[in-house]
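The following record pairs a protein chain with its ligand, adenosine-5'-triphosphate.
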Amino acid sequence: MLKLDHISKTFNPGTLNEKKALDQVDLHLERGDFVTIVGSNGAGKSTLFNAIAGSFLVDSGCILVDGQDITFMAEHKRSKHIGRLFQDPMRGTAPHMTIEENLTLAAGSGGWFAPLTQKDRQRFRDQLALLDMGLEDRIKQPVGLLSGGQRQALTLLMATMNPPWLLLLDEHTAALDPATAEKVLKITREVVAENRITTLMVTHNMQQALELGNRTLMMDSGRVVLDIQGEERKGMTVSDLLARFKAGVGRGLDNDRILLS
Ligand SMILES: Nc1ncnc2c1ncn2[C@@H]1O[C@H](COP(=O)(O)OP(=O)(O)OP(=O)(O)O)[C@@H](O)[C@H]1O
């Protein structure tokens, strides 16, 4: 489904601020894989997502989706097929537009100026009802009136309305209160499983990284240093994972947010 073949990215090359953020990253995902990613501060997790989403071109290597080489595909073209959620719930929706207008844009069928049919409206209501947040009764309200958790759930719905090639979740519940974060995670699990969406999720919560999905990557200094899946992952504890990281990298994990969580 997704193949990253030796991708590298160096910021500010040839200057004092040169930083190799991705160093020959190789990764192969099967359709429906749900991969969690944890790592040190500045390990390259967001840069990896930016590279896949096309926010910049990689310096070397290639990115293939279903065998199609998208290494040089423009970001706006990739964004039609790659859903992405950020930590900030204010990103991903248009606050001055209503829930219905946001969903119409995300659905993308019929064009923005095509009038919504009764069937479209009912579909939106049905999908909103699945979120169990009462949004189906607020469809004419501007999105700016929603809470962070409601906005994040709506963004998730919009990103997966036409199932994407890939879903990139960049700490998408980190800014929410624990109860809302749990709810958004539950919705994430359901939407991803129901549509078999190939998903990558960055988290600083190690427990969550082991519980969600079917595979966990650990990154450090621009490289994937651990790839835990299958039998090895079952029954693995956070301490086991930290010990494996230390044994592999030769030092402990230095992510203040992980250590504080
Ligand atoms: N646009 C940029 N210009 C220069 N340096 C950058 C840029 N983006 C990222 N970096 C650097 O690349 C390295 C990797 O950054 P990245 O944000 O991918 O790390 P991360 O694993 O997401 O970190 P964290 O968990 O701390 O958010 C860091 O040293 C960062 O400062």
